[in-house]
Specification:
This protein is an alpha+beta fold. It is about 30% helix and about 30% strand. It contains two helices and 18 strands. The strands form four sheets. Strands 2, 4, 5, 7, 8 and 9 form a six-stranded mixed β-sheet that branches. Strands 12, 13, 15, 16, 17 and 18 form a six-stranded antiparallel β-sheet that branches. The longest helix is centred in the last third of the chain and has 77 residues. The two termini are about 85 Å apart.
Length: about 325
């Protein structure tokens, strides 16, 4: 019985260890580009990937294929590596993500980083209707035109690199927005493209002025007719992997607790079965002994009765009758 309990406990521990090593997913790293995720043709750019201190190797993937490997420098406060691209071209523009290795485990892949190369086509023209100076709540429309012809246009506002407005059009695209608020104030540029990752030169800047909106700093509602793309990770470093790590550790703890409960229940069941089995054996052993005691007691009682009868008969024989002298 002891061997059975030991084997069961060992099996449970092995199963827990296997689940921990086989199902455990390390938190994903973060990825970003410097100086920007939109790089002029021929300029250098660095892709950074950051993970926990336990990371021993980083892998960078480009369009689903392994692009480069790097190991973090030892004895540094932060575990991160740099993948350097000396010249940005249309061949290096696209989607990147990275992994890190910690022991025998690999992390989830990072969020996507989209690198865009600019300066590949002519300079488009950008203007705004009814004009660069409008009043609050007025509706405005930006127009982007590329004479060489293209199929996609992108409108960006300086200071907001994470949001790009995209529209399709043949040589020209419209970007309606409004009713405008103070949040619409700023300088805009547009790009033309045949490819999501290969853009033209930027247009000349157009500054939208809204007199009397200096005190209104509320964020403008996102236009429902526009499609937004999010690119770089400018604010994620401070909250590195918190949500992912929380859910990963929660899942692992639930698995451990569940396995511990199962093992504990089986152990209790086996102990109960062992106790009942011992009780049955004891009862089975005591029952024949009790029967034997009863049999011997009855036999002893029978012998005593026979002896009494024999003594009584002897006394009767020894006593003289009434006519004896």
């Amino acid at each position: 019985m002891l061997l059975t309990l030991t084997a069961l406990l060992y099996l449970g521990l092995c199963l827990t260890q296997r689940i921990n090593t086989g199902k455990q997913t390390l938190p994903k790293p973060i990825i970003w580009a410097k100086p920007s995720s939109r790089v002029p043709k021929g300029n250098p750019v660095s892709i950074w990937c950051q993970g926990p201190q336990s990371a021993s190797e980083y892998q960078l993937y480009f369009e689903g294929s392994l692009f480069a490997l790097e190991r973090p420098k030892p004895r540094t406060l932060v575990s991160k590596v740099k993948f350097f691209i000396p010249q940005m071209t249309s061949n290096t523009a696209g989607r990147y993500y990275c992994f890190y290795q910690s022991g025998e485990l690999q992390s989830e892949h990072s969020d996507l980083l989209v690198l865009v190369v600019t300066g590949m086509y002519d300079i488009p023209n950008l203007w705004v209707h009814p004009g660069p100076e409008v009043t609050l709540e007025e509706k405005v429309t930006f127009f982007c035109h590329l004479e060489a012809g293209t199929s996609k246009f992108f409108l960006l506002k300086e200071g907001e690199p994470n949001h790009v407005q995209q529209r399709h059009g043949n040589k020209k695209a419209e970007f309606p927005m409004g009713p405008v608020t103070g949040a619409h104030r700023g300088t805009y540029r547009c790009f033309g493209s045949y490819n999501d990752y290969v853009w033209s030169f930027p247009s000349e800047p157009v500054t939208l002025l809204i007199p009397g909106s200096e005190g209104n700093t509320s964020l403008a509602p996102a236009p429902t007719s526009l499609v937004y793309w999010e690119y770089s990770l400018s604010t994620k470093e401070s909250g590195l992997q918190k949500d992912s790590a929380f859910w990963d550790h929660t899942t692992q703890n639930l698995i451990r607790i569940g396995l511990a409960c199962i093992v504990l229940m089986v152990l209790v069941w086996l102990l109960a079965e062992d106790w009942l089995s011992r009780k049955r054996e004891k009862e089975g052993t005591n029952r024949p002994a009790s029967w034997e005691c009863r049999r011997r007691w009855r036999l002893r009682c029978s012998l005593k009765e026979e002896q009494r009868d024999a003594i009584s008969m002897g006394e009767l024989k020894a006593t003289p009758g009434p006519g004896a002298i």
